[in-house]
Model the fold of this input.
Amino acid sequence: MGRMLRIAGVLLLALVAYLLFWPVPIEPLAWQPAAVPGYTGPHAANDRLGAVQVISVGAEVGPEHIEVGPDGKVYTGVLSGAVLRMNPDGSGLETVVDTGGRPLGFDFTADGQLVVADAFMGLLAIGADGSIEVLADEVDGDPIRYADAVVIAADGLMYFTDASRRLAAREWGTFRAALLDILEHSCTGRVLVYDPGSRTTSLVIGGLCFPNGVALSGDGRHLFIAETGEYRIWKVAAAARGLDARRLPAAGD
Done:
């Protein structure tokens, strides 16, 4: 018994030392999450997914965004860095390109070119021959650390999220960087827009808590932004530039 107590004491001291002295990459800010509504209303239990068909991606893992391309095939990006393509029933699985990073969101231009938001590499354009062109990996000298989602407007403008300016996905990995960023809650994420005509990248809105999804309204006039760290969806004018979410009222606040 005495030996067990000594071991427990050593482990306890080691844990205390770890918590007190081991360096951590975040500086957490105090925040109050929204009250949990419980499993009622839109959160009520249901079995609507009970009949889904599971489509295999072979030996790959971590399919993120899913998009139906102009060729009618289904595209997704996986952990290995590959963008996969398959028929809607999952047959004919093949690799379109390996970005060498972590492809998350993607969309297609009007002429069918694949554009990828790669968490490690930035915003990429994929050629028909599999070539990779970096469209944007910084904004005014500030690196894009966590490109996450992208949507392309009818006029060709490419709106994409940079989920965190504090924790780079390349350095920490996508999951760990996301977890640490949300825990810290410093809200450094942003939505950017790339103009292929001028080849410039501009800020649409900053001050977001890990924004990792973006979509356009049917008329193309507004962006819908999923702000994961605050459990909410923003509606922002697509023409807006230089906004700071911390200075704007949010619906329900």
